[in-house]
Design a protein that fits this description.
The complex is a heterodimer of chains A (about 110) and B (about 110).
Chain A lengths: L3 E4 L2 E4 L4 E8 L5 E7 L6 E7 L2 E5 L6 E7 L2 E7 L7 E8 L7 E3 L3 E5 L1
Parallel strand pairs in A: 2-11
Antiparallel strand pairs in A: 1-3, 3-8, 4-5, 4-9, 5-6, 7-8, 9-10, 9-11
Chain B lengths: L3 E4 L2 E5 L4 E7 L5 E7 L5 E6 L3 E5 L2 E6 L4 E6 L8 E8 L8 E2 L3 E6 L1
Parallel strand pairs in B: 2-11
Antiparallel strand pairs in B: 1-3, 3-8, 4-5, 4-9, 6-7, 7-8, 9-10, 9-11
Classes of the chains: A mainly beta (about 110), B mainly beta (about 110).
Amino acid sequence: ETGVTQTPRHLVMGMTNKKSLKCEQHLGHNAMYWYKQSAKKPLELMFVYSLEERVENNSVPSRFSPECPNSSHLFLHLHTLQPEDSALYLCASSQDVGNTEAFFGQGTRLTVV
Amino acid sequence: GIQVEQSPPDLILQEGANSTLRCNFSDSVNNLQWFHQNPWGQLINLFYIPSGTKQNGRLSATTVATERYSLLYISSSQTTDSGVYFCAVLYGAGSYQLTFGKGTKLSVIP
C-alpha cells in the first residue's frame, strides 16, 4: 500500500442513514484534509487535522463529523445528509500544514437519495 | 481571497499535438501545485512548483511568481492525458487551504 487510500470508492445512502468514509495515508505525514468536489464547483476544503488536532472547520454543517484517531487515519462520519450533499469527497495529506506538497486519495463518490 | 483562473476551460487535441495550459493567480503564493484528475476522480500530482521550471517526461511546468502565473506544457499528447487539469495555490502566512482553479478539461482524440 502506498500513498493515500480511501474507502469506499462509491456510496449510496438514504437521508436517514449513518455512514462513514475512511482515509488512510502511508506517507508518514502529519496533516490530513477532507475536501468536497461538487459538480461545476471548485474543490472546497472542509476540515484540516494536524497531528490529530482539528485546525480548521470551514463552516461545514454538523451533519458532517470528522474524526482523526491518529496521524495515519481520518474518518468522515455522515448522518441525515441531504441530496445536495452528493459529491466526490477527497482526502489528502501533507508532511505538515502549509507550504508542503499535498497528496490526494482516489475519492469517495457519494450519492444521497 | 485569492482568485485562481485557468485557461482555456476546455481543450480538444489530436493525439500527438502539444498544448499549453495557463493558471493566473491574483496574489503572491507560497505554494503551487498542478494536478491531473482522471475519469475516476483521482487527483494525481504532476508538479509542486511555487517558482521556476520543472520537467517530467512529456510534461513540464513553469511558474513565474513575480508575474503571478504558471504554465503547464504537454507535448506529444496521448489519449491517456485526457481528464481535467487543476492548478491549486497556497497563499498567506500560516495558510493551509489549497485554493483550486476551475480546471481545464482536456480531451485527446486518436
